[in-house]
Specification:
It is built from four helices and 18 strands. With 256 residues, the chain is of the alpha+beta class.
Length: 256
């Protein structure tokens, strides 16, 4: 090591490496060629990641950017009308409900549907997959057992594509947040709502009446089996619950 440090046939960079390794007590010395190779590989990795990002981003186009100086805020839900998949509804955490009649248009025109509702804070939206124009919107943004201010004002329904709304569940029933709404794809009268708390709401008559079902943990997300629609799953903070009786009872999943 002394001979090498005194200039025994190595370059300045290599001598600097040896000095540092000697001070640290490191027995393995990197050669300059190895350092160059590692640097080259690091640069190639960065280039590959940048190229992948460029390819990925080119496949996506913004569809809800600034329009006339106004923006929606965080989007918490997307729904497609049964009449035409180009008719799209979005629910924003702090910007209300928006609709476009043609998601493929250039530029896309968005219409706000919630100016006459008591809140612009929404956590979810769902469209009846069989009946055009029927939309359900849940107010209040959930963060588990907490909610983001301001609180929501229950659940609303529209039967004319969002032009008019009626309240179908007050906060005394639904709570102050509505994390997610799903509709049974076979029998669309069956509706399930993840409340953000340890219960779900269930309706078997398209929202005319509701049943509160406890025992789900923090119900942040809810999904339904598209084939066996009696099976549903609810997830929260690190837990998953399963129902095999149309959401009437729930069991925590620990295996499988």
């Amino acid at each position: 090591a002394v001979r090498l440090l005194e200039g025994g046939g190595v370059g300045e960079d290599e001598r600097e490496h040896l000095k540092l390794d000697s001070i640290r007590g490191v027995s393995t010395v990197k050669t300059l060629r190895r350092v160059e190779k590692e640097s080259y590989n690091a640069i190639r990795s960065m280039q590959n990641r940048a190229a992948f990002k460029e390819r990925s981003s080119s496949a996506w186009q913004p569809v809800a950017s600034s329009q006339g100086g106004h923006v929606s805020g965080r989007v918490r839900g997307i729904a497609f009308d049964a009449a035409d998949p180009k008719i799209v509804y979005i629910a924003a955490a702090g910007g209300g409900i928006w609709k476009t009649d043609n998601i493929d248009a250039q530029p896309i025109q968005w219409l706000n549907l919630s100016d006459r509702l008591p809140t612009c804070v929404f956590g979810s939206i769902a469209a009846d997959p069989k009946r055009p124009g029927i939309i359900y919107a849940g107010t209040g943004e959930s963060e588990g057992d907490n909610y983001i201010e301001p609180a929501g004002s229950g659940i609303f329904k529209s039967v004319d594509g969002g032009l008019n709304w009626v309240s179908i569940a007050a906060t005394s029933l639904s709570g102050v947040v509505c994390s997610q709404i799903i509709i049974d794809p076979v029998n669309t009268d069956n509706i399930y709502v993840a409340s953000g708390s340890s219960f779900i709401l269930k309706s078997t008559d398209a929202g005319a009446s509701w049943k509160k079902v406890p025992g789900t943990g923090s119900s942040l997300s809810i999904v339904i089996d598209p084939v066996s629609t009696n099976k549903l799953y609810v997830s929260g903070f690190g837990t998953v619950y399963r129902s095999v009786d149309n959401g009437d009872t729930w069991v925590r999943c620990t295996t499988g």
